[in-house]
Design goal:
Order of helices and strands: HHEEEEEEHEEHHHEEHHEEH
Radius of gyration: 18 Å
Largest sheet: 4 strands, antiparallel
Shape: globular
Low-confidence stretches: 1-12
Number of strands: 12
Length: 229
């Protein structure tokens, strides 16, 4: 069952969670519903930052591509998260690409609506600041890992974060849904697809993870957490 915005505000969203029910209803009434099928680009780097997306269901991948063509995935965002807030607040162009990894639904606010609402409801501004700080902290930690941790540790950290957010418990363990390709895992951990495949096969032999088609199942969370240290 999909989360309602009331659930999202209570469980995750720093923006909606900072508002009273009446204020939240006012903000959502100003927004428009949207839907992006899996694989659809939500916005691309360099495009005008005119709107902010509040995610209701699904997962959004945020990535950067260097001048040499090297791609890095910097975040996977889901229900309760917002996408594109930095460009909207600054009135600038997008600094990254955002793509729906599976069916994504949510609400869209344009810059004029958001700025007017922030003027009247400063608590939302605090929520936005906290959200931006959280994302900056995660990016800073990821960059530190790329420069200091070995490849296996980086991959383990990435998987711990993904399973913590997206793992669905079942009899065999925790299934990562929707699945994440080994190429994407490499883009998130700074490794080649071949290295990711080799490491996952080793962890599968050790009984830490299990592959089921394109899905990855976490069998031993404690062992993976230890690999991430």
């Amino acid at each position: 069952m999909a989360l309602t915005f009331r659930d999202i505000a209570r469980r995750e969203s720093l923006i909606l969670g900072a508002l009273t029910p009446k204020e939240r209803a006012t903000l959502l009434a100003m927004s428009k519903p949207c839907h992006y099928p899996g694989g659809k680009m939500i916005f691309s780097k360099g495009s005008p930052g005119e709107t902010l997306l509040l995610i209701e269901t699904g997962r959004v991948e945020v990535s950067l591509t260097s001048a040499s063509g090297s791609r890095s995935i910097v975040a996977h965002l889901g229900p309760g998260d917002c996408v594109g807030e930095m460009a909207v607040l600054l009135g600038s162009d997008r600094t990254a690409d955002a793509m729906a990894t599976n069916d994504v639904t949510g609400r869209v606010l344009n810059r004029m609506q958001l700025m007017a609402f922030l003027t009247e409801h400063p608590k939302t501004t605090l929520g936005l600041i906290a959200d931006l700080c959280r994302k900056l902290q995660a990016t800073t930690e990821a960059l530190a890992d790329l420069s200091m941790a070995d490849g296996g540790t980086r991959l383990a950290k990435v998987l711990v974060g993904l399973f913590d957010r997206w793992g669905e418990e079942e009899e065999a363990g925790f299934r990562l849904k929707p699945s994440v390709s080994q190429s994407d895992l490499g883009d998130m951990s700074g490794l080649t697809r071949e290295t990711v495949n080799r490491q996952i096969r080793a962890w599968e032999a050790d009984g830490i993870v299990q592959r089921d088609g394109r899905d990855l199942i976490l069998v031993n969370p404690e062992a993976l957490a230890e690999k991430a240290q």
